[in-house]
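Sanity check. The docking grid for adenosine-5'-diphosphate depends on where the pocket ends up, so I'm generating a full predicted complex first rather than guessing from homology. Inputs follow.
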Amino acid sequence: MKALEIKNLVKQYTNGPLALKGVNLEIAQGDFFALLGANGAGKTTLINITTNLVNKTEGTVSVFGNDIDKSREEAKRVVGVVPQEFNFNIFETVLDIVCTYAGYFGVPRKEALNRAEEVLTKLELWSKKDAKSMQLSGGMKRRLMIARALMHNPKLLILDEPTAGVDVELRHGMWNYLRELNVSGTTILLTTHYLEEVEQMCRNVAIIKQGEIIKNDSVKGLLNNMESQNFLVVVNKLRDYESIREFKISTFDENTLEVQVMAGQSLSKLVTDLAKLEMEVIDLKPKNNRLEQLYLNILRS
Ligand SMILES: Nc1ncnc2c1ncn2[C@@H]1O[C@H](COP(=O)(O)OP(=O)(O)O)[C@@H](O)[C@H]1O
Ligand SMILES: [Mg+2]
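Predicted complex below; grid placement will be based on this.
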């Protein structure tokens, strides 16, 4: 059984872009899957179609075997979604927010209260149950969004950029919680533009670029594409570097070299080699951020 099966998904926004250009995607039950892509790539559109918030133009989507058109209610029931933006009533209490939401899925109030205690405790929000949501910190609000999405025990949890705007410490806490959830059987799909998040948590990944999936692989497989990274190295004076064989070097501008550094190669060795040729390194930085570099490596391969 596939947790999510998307076939030839096309989305043309009225008076807007062709946001999805025939996307095919399968997520296995139990997977921890990342949809990785830059801003505007189409991640939120794909999620909003899956959760029936946006109409698709073409294609089919089914969640645990439930087609989102033919079995809309069942398809909704098996999914919990944490949207990119906070969208709860700021005057409502934490407990009311999660229990009211459970009500939409037909969970009786008494059962909802039990479930709320369980979920809010896990997400370290139980002590805040009577606080109005406006009184919560940013990290707590984010956890409240997750708690709410879990109230009806979904089999697939979808998180749209869950850690955007969340500080590093809270991010790690959230990762741990999501891992635990996954281990106890919940299939997870998250979107992100942080490669780090994918490396830390996910098993499989698809990269979406301008509405197209350009890569669909295990995270391990993907990271093989990261074996090299290009650096820009500013030196005091450019001299002949032909004798350095260990690194692939080219001239970038009048005092900058572009150097390809393979995984396992040492940057300090590069600095030493250059110093031997009387090139003093003044500055050294990655030419592209890691995600951009990854795209370049994928497009080249
Ligand atoms: N409601 C909308 N109307 C028109 N265009 C939209 C709408 N929502 C998103 N878009 C456009 O569709 C493309 C994909 O957006 P989105 O799915 O939000 O990307 P992402 O979540 O990866 O940042 C972008 O070009 C965006 O401007
Ligand atoms: Mg988005």
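Relevant for the grid: Residues 43-44, 84, 160-161 surround magnesium ion (ligand 2) (CB under 6 Å).
Also worth noting: DSSP finds ten helices and 14 strands in the chain.
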